[in-house]
Specification:
The complex is a heterodimer of chains A (227) and B (356). By secondary structure, chain A is mainly α. Chain A contains eleven helices and no strands. Chain B has 356 residues and is α+β, with helices and mostly antiparallel strands. In chain B, the strands form four sheets. A six-stranded mixed beta sheet of chain B has the order 7-8-9-3-10-11, with helices on both faces. Chain B has a five-stranded antiparallel beta sheet with strand order 2-1-4-5-6, covered by helices on one side. A five-stranded antiparallel beta sheet of chain B has the order 14-13-12-15-21. The radius of gyration of chain B is 25 Å and the shape is elongated. Classes of the chains: A mainly alpha (227), B alpha+beta (356).
Chain lengths: 227, 356
């Protein structure tokens, strides 16, 4: 029973890249939502959360319309990189990004909101810019919960199926991620391959969740910062 | 010099009554104490000055800079206000050492100068030995000194202290007093201090603003306010006085005397200019100005019979609490010689009998 390991590597690569991007965008968004007040804040929050509740096919459809070859964004991408975005592994990154960012923003916002407000006030009254406050105070203070949130986002982007299928397709050796490969294996009655892949992805997800739990659980009250 | 006129309203919500702050005051060099019960709007006032809360209307002026002007729609963000703020929980960044906490605050000072300045502040506040430690490794006093040093290192134009002595034990409070006196001598900026402890006002305050329900009810030096509370509410907030409801029965300017009726008893006091016979007033007198002697059945002149409820030991005297809520404070020797008597006569001095 020869197993093609490409889907596993592709999934890991997609998850790592999309988690990095999600952290970059999502943490700043989450911090903004937690710490600043502006009009339409809750609308923005709802918009960010929407992908969490929409059916993957709906989200995939939106992305297809938004990034397809005939759309302005898709056109721009093609002009810059010389090839279309849809039905490439990069599209799988976009899919994973939209799949995991909402989760990251949700949990990171909660993490930022649970830190004592007086630290942020102190930093501001000491003359810190918003970015310095984010980078030097908020982020380090919430780092455990932030890492946990990032781990969850990683696990989630590892397992996306619907959105990836819609915009990256199922091209073996090019865009076939782990979850799609499992679907394929089951479809073609290749039960042994499916079993191996299922065990692998479950093990990874479980490990990530254990790490995330360890980061957030705190049996002895607030943990002292490491020396 | 800070001048503030602040209005801020909070509508009543399901679980909180409405609150409105309407305060106007100014504070120059030295210590100005905002004194009042919790929920009076003292901390809110500091937050408005520091820029954490935006008032609905009003104007806040620091030296010649407008920090907030409701009419002109000016609201300077906190980072540009140069207000040093010492938080109740100190808010020292737990992931940084003391030195790093100071460095964070000294970001705007040029680099060479910064290093020297941090060293200087660490020396000044006796923190040099522990500068490499993080806040959780420090004693309460060290944390407090560090938070004051951090607030001052950027050369703010006003220092705001939110209930600095809350939850401190007596030695720490004394230590804080001396640190704050040092601040007054070495930094010539106005200091606004929030407290609900009148003794702290007396110890530190140059000026005092009594705040109640979001309004300033009396302003003046702490001594002046203690000697002449503006009304019965202020007297009650100070918590220093016996307050007895009474009615003026007679006024005699010729003999500089008056007669007051408290319950079924008559008290003789000085003449009260500007009062009329029949006025309902409050007799306001400190417990240490009263004295008590065991009752012999027939109260004498300006004496009220009362039964002792309990005695409370104070460091330098004994506080005797009687029925009707009258308290008398006397030397320990003076009470001990009478033993355990239950019925007493409380003696009111004629000259010191103040009314509000």
């Amino acid at each position: 029973m020869p197993i093609d390991w490409f889907p596993l590597w592709l999934s890991l690569r997609v998850a790592v890249i999309s988690t990095a991007l999600a952290a970059g965008i999502g943490l700043w968004l989450a911090w903004t939502l937690a710490n600043r007040s502006f009009r339409g804040k809750e609308v923005l929050d709802a918009g960010i959360t929407l992908p969490l509740v929409l059916p993957p096919t709906v989200l995939g459809y939106y992305l297809l319309v938004l990034l397809g070859r005939s759309s302005p964004l898709g056109h721009l991408y093609e002009m810059i990189f010389g090839s279309p975005l849809v039905f490439t592994w990069q599209a799988a990154v976009v899919a994973a990004l939209f799949h995991s960012t909402p989760l990251l923003v949700k949990s990171a916002r909660a993490a930022f909101e649970s830190t004592d407000r007086s630290y942020e006030r102190a930093a501001r009254s000491l003359g810190a810019s918003e970015f310095r406050l984010f980078w030097r105070v908020s982020l380090p203070l919430a780092r455990r919960s932030i890492l946990a949130a990032t781990a969850l986002a990683f696990a989630r982007s590892l397992g996306d199926f619907g959105v990836t299928l819609m915009i990256a397709g199922n091209i073996p050796g090019r865009t076939q991620t782990l979850s799609i490969a499992i679907f394929d294996a089951v479809e073609s009655n290749n039960g042994s391959v499916a079993r191996v892949l299922v065990v692998i992805i479950s093990a990874i997800a479980l490990a990530v969740l254990l790490v995330a739990n360890r980061l957030t659980s705190n049996p002895f009250g607030p943990r002292q910062p490491a020396l | 010099m800070i001048q503030a006129k602040i209005r801020k309203r909070f509508a009543a919500a399901r679980e909180s009554a409405g609150f409105s702050l309407d305060l106007e005051f100014q504070a120059s060099r030295g210590f100005t104490v905002l004194f009042g019960p919790s929920g009076a709007g003292k901390t809110l006032t500091l937050d408005c000055i520091a820029g954490f809360v935006q008032p609905d209307e009003g104007r806040i002026l620091l030296d010649d800079q407008i920090l907030f002007d409701g009419a002109a729609r000016v609201c300077v963000p906190p980072r540009a206000r140069s207000c040093g703020y010492v938080f109740q929980n100190y808010a020292l960044f737990p992931h940084m050492t003391l030195r790093e906490n100071l460095e964070f605050a000294a970001k705007r000072i040029p680099r060479l100068e910064r290093h020297r300045k941090i060293g200087e502040m660490l020396e000044k506040f006796h923190l040099a030995d522990v500068s490499g430690r993080r806040p959780f490794e420090l004693s309460g006093g060290q944390k407090q000194r560090c938070s004051i040093a951090r607030a001052l290192i950027g050369a703010p134009r006003v220092l705001l202290l939110d209930e600095p002595t809350r939850g401190l034990d007596a030695p720490l409070r004394a230590e804080l007093d001396s640190v704050l006196r040092q601040v007054r001598e070495e930094f010539s900026i106005p200091v606004l201090l929030v407290t609900h402890d009148f003794e702290e006002c007396l110890r530190l305050g140059d000026e005092m603003i009594v705040v109640r329900d979001g309004r300033a009810v009396q302003t003046g030096t702490p001594r002046k306010i203690m000697e002449q509370p503006a009304n019965v509410e202020v007297a009650r907030l100070l918590g220093l006085f016996n307050l007895l409801p009474a009615e003026i029965r007679a006024l005699d300017p010729g003999r500089n005397s008056s007669r007051l009726r408290y319950r079924e008893f008559e008290l003789t006091g000085p003449y009260y200019p500007g009062r009329l016979i029949g006025d309902q007033v409050w007799v306001c007198i400190r417990p240490d100005l009263l004295s008590a002697v065991p009752s012999n059945g027939k109260p004498g002149m300006n004496q009220i019979p009362s039964s002792l409820v309990r005695t409370v030991e104070k460091p330098d005297r004994v506080r005797m609490e009687f029925g009707e809520g009258i308290a008398v404070e006397m030397d320990r020797a003076a009470t001990e010689k009478y033993g355990s008597v239950k019925e007493w006569a409380i003696e009111f001095p004629q000259a010191g009998l103040r009314i509000l």
